[in-house]
Amino acid sequence: MRAVEVSAFGGTDKLELVDVESPVAGPGQVLIDVEACGVNYADIMMRRGLYGGGPAPRFIPGLEVAGTVARAGDGVTKFVPGQRVMALVSHGGYAEQVVASSAGVMPRPEGMSAQSAAAFPVNYFTADFALHFAGNVKPGQTVLIHAAAGGVGTAAVQLAKIAGARVIATASSSEKLERVRALGADICIDYTKEDFLAVVRDATDGEGVELVLESVGGDVFDKSLAALRSLGRLVVFGIASADVRRPDPRELLFRNLWVIGLHLGMLMLQPDVVEQASERLFGLLATGRIVPQIGHVLGLEEAVRAHTLLGERSNYGKVILEP
């Protein structure tokens, strides 16, 4: 089968289109014929060797796929060949076939395209966990969402508005912000031209926001902490800049602030947490209240372009690869 492998840690030149043996579904696993694969910033971190606990070269990146079941391994009764599904995997999605643990496989809702399904699991479960499980968002609260035009960002804007929150969104261009505004964002900030901290303070009469969703690191982390009001929560689910900052414990103590880390893969191992999010998300999908945002659909041979788009923040919504 065709697949994209990371030959060594490094730049996009380490992505290679190769022919490899098809994987085999073992006990408790499902072999999926991949129709679409979502591209995530975590893939870039894995390629660069910056993803804690990630695979070592050579490996096939890709955390989420949509397709049809080719074979169900021993002990799997929930899924059958020919069934349309989407799945979360530890890696391996940039390929014509992938093996997934049956626990990470979800039936694809009727009428949902493979592209939309491949844009759903990472983005929407991450955003839901950040807002509800970690962020404890409440109606009337104000949420600051960074990288709001990206995959998780567009999902978070939709879900935050459904939760009754006021949304302040940041992105890198007026064009992206127009699309984010159409999703419901109340205040939109072009962070290349404006100081988001100053805008937040002005918009909240100096009080700050109750919740920030942060995945950049560096100065954005520091300023996001400063943007919180007392009892505010900063949920960190990524470090795109690779610039790790540490909060001053005195600031956390005397301002009563919470800094909460969120790792999707670890939370997906908590059945009760996943069940609550699944009920909410699939209910919203069924009624059309959330719609995965897709910016680019590329062929498997265009994996370098896909990583470049994310790395340069040139994408809107999800980037999809189709084998």
Main beta sheet: 7 strands, mixed
Task: Write down the CATH topology of the largest domain.
Answer: Quinone Oxidoreductase, Chain A, domain 1
> How many structural units, i.e. domains?
2
User: Into which percentage range does the β-strand content fall?
Assistant: 25-35%
Rg, rounded, reads 19 Å
CATH class of the largest domain: Alpha Beta
- How would you state the average pLDDT, rounded? 96
What is the helix content? Answer: 25-40%
Number of helices: 11
Compute the separation of the termini in Å.
Answer: 10 Å
Instruction: Assign the structural class, choosing from mainly alpha, mainly beta, alpha/beta, alpha+beta, or little secondary structure.
Output: alpha/beta
Number of strands: 15
Order of helices and strands: EEEHEEEEHHEHEHEHEHEHEHHEHE
By CATH, the architecture of the largest domain is named Alpha-Beta Complex
**Overall geometric form:** globular
